[in-house]
Amino acid sequence: MPDYRRCRVAGGTFFFTVVTHGRRPILADELGRSCLSRAMRQTRARHPFQVIAMVLLPDHLHAVWSLPQGDQAYSRRWSRIKELFTQAYLTSGGTESVISPSRSKHRERAIWQRRFWEHACQDEDDLSRCVDYIHWNPVKHGLVECVKDYPWSTFHRHVRTGDYEEDWGRSDPSPPGFAGAWE
């Protein structure tokens, strides 16, 4: 059985990749986006975290969160977000993939991949690379030609706060090999 080791840094800042089951593009429509927004809002109300950056693509999302001092329970937050999303999505008419015998045995729905990928941001430079990667991602996936044209990203918030110029991202800001397992 695999040994999934998570990086636990109380009060840390983390980069995440969360993927839908079978890479179904369920996050590309209004139902998926509204269910995710509500699930995140409800989870943050009970288990606070700061969203530093986020991008929502059709079949996955990337996010950078900072957790409160002394708190390292990001797995609990993602579990709750996935659970709340799934309930709302299915109740509102969304459909799921075929449930495998393994998922059935574990009483799991076929909406999200079981796990997620995380990376603890080591310093300000690492954090900056992660945030740049998030905002560049829609261009990388061919969804838009310019970062500013993608609506489901915190890029626009970062422009308003002066962190980016509106025309930022004319070329890939990631160092070679930076993405690694993130996709």
Q: How would you characterize the overall build of this protein?
A:
The chain has 183 residues and is an alpha+beta fold. It has one domain (13-175): Transposase IS200-like (Alpha-Beta Plaits, 2-Layer Sandwich), CATH 3.30.70. It has five helices and four strands, in the order βαββααβαα. The chain has helices at 30-46, 74-91, 101-105, 124-140, 155-160; strands spanning 13-19, 50-56, 60-66, 117-120. It has a four-stranded antiparallel sheet with strand order 2-3-1-4. A hairpin with a 3-residue loop joins β2 (50-56) and β3 (60-66). The chain starts with 12 loop residues before the first strand and ends in a 23-residue tail after the last helix.
> Which architecture name does CATH use?
2-Layer Sandwich
- Might you state the CATH topology name? Alpha-Beta Plaits
Proportion of helical residues: 25-40%
Overall body shape: globular
Count of extended strands: 4
Helix-strand sequence: EHEEHHEHH
Number of domains: 1
Radius of gyration (CA) equals 16 Å
The span between the termini is 23 Å
Instruction: Order the strands across the largest sheet as they lie in space.
Output: 2-3-1-4
Question: What's the CATH H-level homologous superfamily?
Answer: Transposase IS200-like
Structural class: alpha+beta
Number of helices: 5
CATH class category label: Alpha Beta
Overall pLDDT level: 87
Low-confidence stretches: 1-6
